[in-house]
Structures are given as structure tokens and as C-alpha cells.
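chain below, 223 aa
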Amino acid sequence: MSKFIESTNSDRLFLIKQKPTFAYILVSSLLVFPIFRILFRGKTFGNSNVPQSGPLLVVSNHGSDLDPPILGHALGRPVSFMAKKELFSVPIISQIITACGAYPVRRGSSDREAIKTAINLLHQGSAVGVFLDGTRQSNGRVNNPMAGAALLSARSGADLLPVAIINSHRALGKSKWPRLVPIHLRIGIPIKPPTSKKRDDLQETTNQLQASINSLIDEGLIA
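prediction:
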């Protein structure tokens, strides 16, 4: 995992590139990538926009349960997502979701606890994933964005990376049978943290994220 090394003479932070674990590489190679690249003919565009070191908030739309593992393995660095604590006591599933970068959150826990966990990961130099709507959307777009990603960014100083997941809502959306349609990712340009934690500044950044992600979705599948 990445670390921050802080200079004793200044506030400057030197970042060490985050290294994937062996479990991450194993799950990525044998499970997630074959499913994404072969079954769903997965493609990504804009990978050069992904910072490979330092804290990063990966912010995307959310269309299906396929989104976390795909994001965790298609960007070139692990991405951590919150998951119910109970899942970490289930054999095999526990190892898979841990390798995919999930971190446990107790059912019914407050938003404050989840935010604290995410900020700690960011302070360690990790990439943390946030779905802008919070829940899956049947049309696969960002419809009702929440300010959680902007708040995490304001508190941690981490940049926000907009990512559009195209077609996952059609592949495995709410109350739908799986369909083997292409799933493509378009990665946008990182967005700087809000200028403050004030409501208006958080909302401005949230609106910017929504516009960026939906614009990437509108570009359609990658040729």
C-alpha cells in the first residue's frame, strides 16, 4: 500500500507509487479481467488520466454490481470500496472482495464512520471509489448526485477522477437478467478538490462531476 513520507522541514509530501498485492493480481488476472475483457468485451479510454500514485477519489456512475470489481481492476491501480462487514466472514467471498479493494463497514453504521475509514485510506495514499448517486441507477446515468465525494475530497485534499461506466446497467441492472453487452469505461480529467467544505462549494464540485461523467457517457461506446 502507498505511504506518505513527510519532510521534517516542510509540509511537502512525497508519494510512493501504490503497489498491487499478489491477491489483487491473482483475482485481476484469473477472474475480473477475463469477465470484463472477454465476456463483456471491455475497453477503457483515458487511462493516461489516472494518477498512479497518491490519494485519489474515483467517482463514477453506478448501474450494476459489476461496477466495483471492474473499477478496481481496469484503472491500473487498486480502488477501495466499502462493503458490508458480514461479507468479510464468508469464505472465498472475503478473499475476493478484499483483493478487489473492499473495506468493511458495519451495517447501520453512521456516515461519519464510513467517511473516517475512507479518509484514513486516502491518507495512506490509496484510491477510494465513490458512486456519485450512492445507489444503482436504472438508466446508468448520474441522476441525483450526492455531495459525499466532494466532502471526502475537501477533507483529504485528494483529487477527484470522473469515470463513466457505459452499459453496465444493461449488462446486469436492477431486476434484469444478465446480458452480454459491451461494457466500456471512459476516464475523464481529474478535478481539483473544492475550495472549502461549505455547502455551495461542495455542490459546485458535485455538479461538475455529474456534468463530466454524463458527458463521457454521452460519447458512447469506444470505437
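The domain at 41-79+110-218 is CATH 3.40.1130.10 (Glycerol-3-phosphate (1)-acyltransferase). The longest strand covers residues 159-166.
thats it, cya
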